[in-house]
Design brief:
About 65% of the residues lie in helices and about 5% in strands. The chain is an alpha+beta fold. The chain folds into three domains: about 1-35 and about 170-390 and about 510-725, no CATH class; about 70-160, Alpha-Beta Plaits (2-Layer Sandwich); about 405-510, 2-Layer Sandwich (Alpha-Beta Plaits).
Length: about 750
């Protein structure tokens, strides 16, 4: 099948390139309006069928106030603010400005509430809070900021914060960070690509692929947003994976094409053999990454399923480039892929064997010669790196630890946390479904709430429209800390005798954790089963897929452990432009698990693909393992290094939870390309011997019928795999049978 496919690409290569160019032009044009159709609010972390969201809707329907939105104006006065004296003009002007806006339902300041906690510790600042209905953040925040600038009393003295400003500014931060990362990453990536590909022409191929993958996936997202809402945070994954996978896949295809060209002057035959071998590996690699990302679609949170949709879209786009467009480009270029390269590099490319292969061969000999010791040391190293996971803590996304200080909402949140004595703008809401006659028992319930440790204040119960009551409460401490979560648990466990629902920063965080825990087992099962199926389709073995899954969890655990060490505990965090958060954002490890698991399998597929070619050609298990490491060593190492550079597009961003994802994914790739691929995989494959390739007879028959081996399609590859000179192509598996 791949023979006919590659022949068609060669025959219609110019048509393929013209169609690809048209797709890029259309994608670029249609993607211009994508930003306005993406969401960026804290609602991206909601399960819209959950009880806390229902409570929020009850409150908004009755009062017009959306508790997930609101303004917080940080007002700084030149004089000390005395709550017992007349309100300063700047504070009064800020309150009047909010009252004049149509979306504002209520204005709260220290005078109207007699709440001195709304004045800072140094008495120079105060907070004016506006409770509002549902608005379009990207429209109202610029309007409010412009009104402040136009007012001579407020200009220079008022900073806009709050959840509504945070939602608007998150999108701006994400898009600006992506633009900045492109300016930094693309030139560096090109320089390294020239070194790795040993030529300018060849180095341009993965960059072209990255551009194609990013634009094509954005076109797909533009179509998808017509049917469901997508979070802006998915664009981070599009940029990083688009560049990283295009580099990986291009390096694999181009390297194999050059190898085939050295063996034959027939460009068409070289391309056919490349597609049948490296192309098959790219196909299964892309399928494994997509399979891992499918698990994110299980979750109802927009942030998570958007990551899954965007990730799958860019993986498919990168596969399309590597399997269709790149072969067409190679068919047109032929030997000109070596053009614009120094003569020394051209001479190295013309050598029958890559000099670096000798180093990898020596590593393979050492590891396979002492498999027990090698596997033990590798496993211990990964477990040590994973040990910080024993103390992992989770928290919900908040503006205080999400937005940088350069964003006004981030600045206000940080000032509130440091300069004010208590959490003054975040309030938990208890919604009780009870008849209008239930006033006495609900008042009694409110009294019991006041006696709970950690509850700072309980406002009088309010009867909402219909059979609903509202009891606002304030907790001691900042939202979503261990203390406030324990307090909220005690509040939730107190039974008023009627059905209750809870919303607010801490209540929403607890609801998110509960919902993630409920969907996590199914998502993990989908990830594991999909990976096992794809790897079985590639190898025909049931042992190798299981072993790959176990090793993926080891490398992923090690990566997550280091993420906890850096981002939660704060070690070396300043080197990444952040500080210790005290906890990981709840959804980041889930996204990291899916992306890291897929990428770990990706590099495993690169190695297993070459090992399987050796096994199918007649090499013994140990010889096939050594040949696989020898031939993929330089390619996988270079691909991992370049992919990590692409992931810096996320690490360079200013959002802490995005940094967690980028850093963790890059680290998972490094660990997999070094400890796992160079030591753990070959040592375990040596220990298992011929059992690596075992499968029950019915599955073997099914595999032969549905997934014919690449070795039977391209007999000429055998001599390439046997280049180590250890035995001829006629070597049989007499030492290690396929039991």
């Amino acid at each position: 099948m791949l023979d006919d496919f590659s022949d068609a690409i060669v025959r219609y290569r110019r048509t393929v390139l013209v169609i690809a160019a048209l797709v890029v032009v259309v994608a670029g044009a249609l993607s211009l309006g994508l930003r306005d159709r993406l969401t960026s609010g804290w609602g991206d972390w909601d399960d819209h069928g959950s009880a806390n969201v229902a409570a929020r809707e009850v409150i908004e329907n009755a009062t017009g106030v959306n508790t997930q939105q609101g303004y917080v104006l940080l007002v700084r006065d030149d004089q000390r603010i005395d709550p017992t004296m007349a309100v300063p003009p700047v504070v009064q002007a800020a309150a009047d400005l909010l009252r004049q806006r149509p979306e504002v339902r209520q204005v709260i300041d220290y005078r109207s509430t007699q709440n001195p906690a709304l004045v800072s510790k140094d008495k120079r600042s105060t907070l004016v809070i506006g409770e509002i209905g549902t608005v379009t953040e990207s429209k109202v925040i610029p309007q409010l900021e412009q009104q402040i600038r136009d007012n001579p009393v407020l200009n220079g003295h008022v900073v806009v914060g709050g959840s509504t400003a945070g939602s608007a500014q998150v999108m701006s931060v994400v898009l600006k960070d992506l633009a900045f990362a492109e300016l930094i990453i693309f030139p560096l990536l090109f320089v390294l690509l020239v070194v790795v590909f040993r030529g300018v022409t060849a180095a341009l191929l993965p960059l072209v692929g990255g551009g194609f993958a990013i634009l094509t996936s954005m076109l797909a997202i533009r179509i998808i947003v017509e049917f469901c809402t997508i979070s802006v945070f998915g664009l981070d994954l599009v940029l990083a994976l688009g560049l990283g996978l295009s580099v990986d896949f291009s390096l694999l295809i181009v390297s194999r094409y050059r190898e085939q060209l050295r063996q034959t002057d027939n460009g068409s035959k070289a391309l056919r053999d490349t597609v049948n071998t490296a192309g098959r590996t790219v196909l299964f690699s892309g399928l494994t990454i997509s399979s891992a990302l499918v698990g994110l679609l299980i979750f109802p949170q927009r942030f998570l399923y958007s990551m899954g949709i965007c990730g799958i879209a860019v993986v498919v786009a990168a596969m399309l480039y590597a399997l269709v467009i790149l072969p067409a480009l190679l068919a047109v270029l032929g030997h000109r892929t070596e053009s614009r390269a120094p003569r020394y590099w051209q001479r190295r490319s013309d050598q029958a064997e890559d000099p670096s292969a000798q180093r990898w061969r020596r590593i393979a000999i050492v590891v396979t010669g002492r498999p027990v010791l090698s596997a033990s040391l590798a496993a211990v190293a990964l477990l040590v790196l994973a040990s910080p996971l024993l103390g992992v803590k989770f928290t919900a996304v908040q503006s205080a630890n999400t937005l940088p200080d350069g964003a006004s909402a981030g600045h206000v949140a940080q000032v509130m946390a440091s300069d004010f004595g208590a959490s003054v703008s975040d309030q938990e809401q208890v919604v009780i479904d009870a008849p209008s006659t239930a006033g006495p028992p609900i008042n009694s319930y409110a009294e019991k709430l006041r006696s709970i440790e950690g509850v700072a204040a309980v406002e009088p119960p309010q009867r909402l429209s219909g059979n609903h009551w509202l009891v606002p409460i304030s907790l001691t401490g900042q939202p979503n800390t261990d203390t406030t979560q324990d307090t909220m648990h005690r509040v939730e466990n107190l039974d008023p005798g009627y059905p209750t629902r809870f919303t607010g920063p801490t209540a929403d965080g607890l609801a998110l954790d509960t919902d993630l825990g409920r969907h996590l087992p199914l998502a993990a099962a989908v990830l594991i089963v999909a990976t096992l199926v794809v790897l079985f389709a590639m190898t025909g073995s049931v042992v190798l897929p299981v072993k790959a899954v176990v090793m993926n969890f080891l490398s992923l655990g090690a990566a997550l452990g280091v993420v906890v060490f850096v981002f939660q505990n704060g070690h070396f965090a300043r080197l990444l432009g952040t500080t210790g958060q005290g906890a990981l954002e709840s959804t980041s490890p889930i996204v990291l698990a899916a992306v890291g698991f897929g990428l770990s399998t990706d590099y495993g597929v690169f190695l297993l693909g070459r090992i399987k070619e050796g096994w199918d050609s007649g090499l013994s298990n140990r010889q096939a393992v050594a040949a696989g490491i020898e031939h993929t060593g330089r390619i996988v190492t270079a691909a991992a290094a370049l992919f990590c550079l692409a992931m810096c597009a996320i690490v360079l961003g200013r959002l802490a939870f995005a940094k967690e994802l980028g850093f963790g994914a890059a680290l998972a790739v490094i660990l997999d390309a070094s400890i796992v691929r160079a030591i753990l995989v070959p040592s375990l494959m040596t220990l298992l011997g011929g059992a690596n390739w075992w499968a029950p007879k019915p599955l073997r028959i099914l595999h032969r019928r549905m997934f014919p081996s690449a070795a039977t399609q391209v007999a000429a590859q055998a001599s390439s795999i046997d280049s180590a000179g250890t035995q001829t192509i006629t070597t049989s598996h007499s030492e290690e049978t396929r039991a």
